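[worker-b] picked up task from shared queue
[worker-b] task type: protein-ligand structure
[worker-b] ligand name resolved to magnesium ion; SMILES cross-checked against name lookup, match
[worker-b] sequence length check passed
[worker-b] input payload:
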Amino acid sequence: MSHISRTPSAASHVETYKLVVVGAGGVGKSCLAVQLVHQVFDDSEEYDPTIEDAYVKQVEVDDVLCRLDILDTAGQENFSALRDQYLKDGDGYLIVYSVIERATFEEAAIFRTQILRVRELPGVPIMLVGNKCDHAARKVTTAEGEDLAQSFGCPFLESSAKLRINVERIFFDLVREIRNQRALSSEKPKDRPRKLTSKCQLF
Ligand SMILES: Nc1nc2c(ncn2[C@@H]2O[C@H](COP(=O)(O)OP(=O)(O)O)[C@@H](O)[C@H]2O)c(=O)[nH]1
Ligand SMILES: [Mg+2]
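[worker-b] inference finished, payload out:
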């Protein structure tokens, strides 16, 4: 895509971004997607961990109207052809772990490897997300998340689907990351520096 409209009201063509949310089971992928799309966090509702779901949301990111096609994966089909296909189809990826479960943090690298394996293009837009930052029983520090993201060469944020902390930002920053990568690959100059990390802030 070489042209992005800068005038939302005049946008007859809406940019579409396929965002794939991956990560270990139980880290909050479904809650993040539901919180973004429906603005709710319902603890009483159990999101079936085996169900994969898709969401569509039209948003403005930096004054440009765009459509987010969000695939909330369920991790049942490890290493299958299906998994490869949806990883291949994505424009950008949220790799989510839970800050209260160290094993899910360690699994983040596995998800990144899977993504890089199926993508032929260089410069894959990825955002590392440490979810459940509202929780008192934290097992993974913010600095560890930042270090991992640095080793991945990708941006990092902590989030809480429960308290709606950084929920929009993780999706919007991923869109920005995709735009940056597209601009780079079409050799357009970047217009502003990227902020790579941000801490979880309760407010
Ligand atoms: N404290 C807290 N709990 C969360 C958060 N996000 C999800 N959860 C809980 O974590 C569990 C798994 O969430 P879910 O979205 O189904 O995880 P998924 O398997 O990655 O889709 C549920 O019991 C949620 O209530 C969060 O930001 N903070
Ligand atoms: Mg789920």
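[worker-b] attaching auto-annotations
[worker-b] The two ends are 38 Å apart (CA to CA).
[worker-b] releasing lock
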